[in-house]
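Bump. Still looking for Outer membrane protein assembly factor BamB structure tokens.
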Amino acid sequence: MMRWNHAALLALTLLAVGCSSNSKKELPPAELTDIKEEVRLDKQWSRSVGDGQGDLYELLTPAVDGSTIYAAAAEGRVMAMQRESGDVLWKKDLDLPISGGVGVGGGLVLVGTLKGDVVALNAADGEQKWRTRVPSEVLSAPVTDGDVVVLQTQDDKLIALDASTGNQRWVYENTVPVLTLRGTGSPIIAGRMAIAGLASGKVVAVDLQRGLPAWETRVAVPQGRSELDRVVDIDGGLILDDNVIYVATYQGRAAALDLASGRVLWQREASSYAGVSEGMGNVYVSDASGTVESLDGRSSSSLWSNDALARRQLSAPAVFSSNVVVGDLEGYIHLLSQVDGRFVGREKVDGDGVRVRPLVVDKWMYVYGNSGKLVAYTIR
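Sorry for the wait, here they are.
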């Protein structure tokens, strides 16, 4: 079975852009132009978290639980910090290559590794509570409701572990396409269901206690002659808001699904490996080409589109106050107005780039750069 490495993901993105422009040469990232700064950010604190995303294009995203923010680095460091001051509460160096994280809940901090380990740490002091081996690498954050830990492996298995012991409760297996992007989104837990996006372009809901499917919905249909053309992974994760699931696939569609039944409420053509966000009743998509688009959350009609960040390898979008925020390969975060998509602010965070979605909690935004720089911002 063929597997994509991280460099291939970037190559695929550039290839898609190059083909669409009928050019034999890869086009460079769009140059940034001057903007009128309407929103200014105040940096509240900055901390270094090990080597950050490492050299394998991991997507390690911080997580907040109460007054604490947790972050992990690829070489094995996990840190807990007071989220408004940045004061380090504890630091744990695992002798493991972390590739999935961070999940928090029920007093646990959860990470997954390239070797297929799932590690649960005590949220209060960082001491290991349990460690369990699963069949393949874990490239996204495990999630928990305090009773069950659910994770998705690179080979598209959904696995449930007992939150107290790490013992396996069930496994839900899926058929993996011949060719996939390297990565998975994190599952979400909603009531009695665990919901995940798959490499096949499907979204599946599984009974949380028994591991039996509740519904399965195909969002994208693989098309084209080559396996490359037929890649329709859901790697950007799912967004749940008001009993509606929002999702986007690579080379496929963006869609809204009913939580209870999986019924498609709307869908439209889209291509994203980064993902979507939701705010003010709208859905925001970071397209694989570098376009940021706003869709009406009820009808999917396009409200605005900004293509000035073409080929800049954007992160998934986040909604911060009345702005949409994306990171890019040069380490900038860009603030776009939710109303019309114009640029209203820009900040350089990390010279190594920003590939993970900014984390927004209340009036705070946390940006985790590729080099391991974690920065907290508020709006001035």
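Residues 43 and 377 are 5 Å apart (CA to CA).

Edit: fixed formatting.
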